[in-house]
Design goal:
Elements (H helix, E strand, L loop, with lengths): L12 H17 L2 H17 L10 H21 L1 H6 L1 E5 L6 E4 L10 H20 L3 H12 L4 H8 L3 H24 L2
Antiparallel strand pairs: 1-2
Helix pairs in contact: 1-2, 1-3, 2-3, 5-8, 6-8
Length: 188
């Protein structure tokens, strides 16, 4: 039995997947520049290993799996002794104390993790309230696409809408969420 050769559409990767991969990465590393670098590394690794693509998943799923490994590698690196020595924290910008401190030597008493946890929980609750205030269809489409990560085709089939309608709904939901967050979180 001859196996059909699977070909990747690498010329369309940036148009088709860059935004999705960037959003995936930035949500995991919380750093825009680093997320861009990880996506670029993902595309490069995908090009290098394109011959290994067997077509058992979609291109996007395959690229996401590469990106997941890139994110894990990043965290492994910064959590290793060598990686910690490379990650620096700027402390003084001028004067006799100008310079960088190695992150692992920052005094532990400065850690305000509990405050960040409380603030993150409050932020999460506000986001959920804003989503709950969206029209029902907007909330459903937004959650399915953005939070649950359903494919566009799956959502369109399930809700019997067109892809262009889906993107209009997602855009309107994001606009309303941004306004809600500005009114109820950022301006308080």
């Amino acid at each position: 039995m001859l196996q059909e050769k699977i070909t990747l559409n690498t010329d369309k990767w940036i148009d088709n997947y860059a935004d999705y991969l960037y959003n995936y990465a930035v949500s995991r590393v919380n750093n825009s520049d680093l997320a861009k670098d990880l996506v670029q590394d993902t595309f490069f690794a995908g090009l290098k290993s394109a011959k290994n693509f067997q077509g058992k998943s979609t291109e996007r799923t395959w690229l996401v799996s590469i990106l997941k490994r890139k994110v894990i590698d990043y965290y492994r690196k910064i959590n290793s002794k060598k990686g910690q020595a490379e990650v620096r924290m700027n402390f003084y910008n001028d004067g006799e104390n100008e310079g960088d401190w190695i992150e692992e030597r920052v005094p532990q008493s400065w850690d305000n993790q509990s405050e960040r946890d409380i603030e993150n929980e409050e932020l999460k609750e506000q986001i959920e309230r804003c989503i709950d205030n969206l029209p029902e269809k907007y909330a459903m489409v937004f959650k399915m696409k953005t939070i649950q990560g359903f494919e566009t085709e799956e959502i369109c089939k399930e809700l019997e809408i067109t892809p262009s309608n889906l993107w209009v709904i997602v855009h309107r939901a994001r606009t309303q969420l941004r306004k809600c967050m500005e009114d109820n979180w950022f301006n308080n």
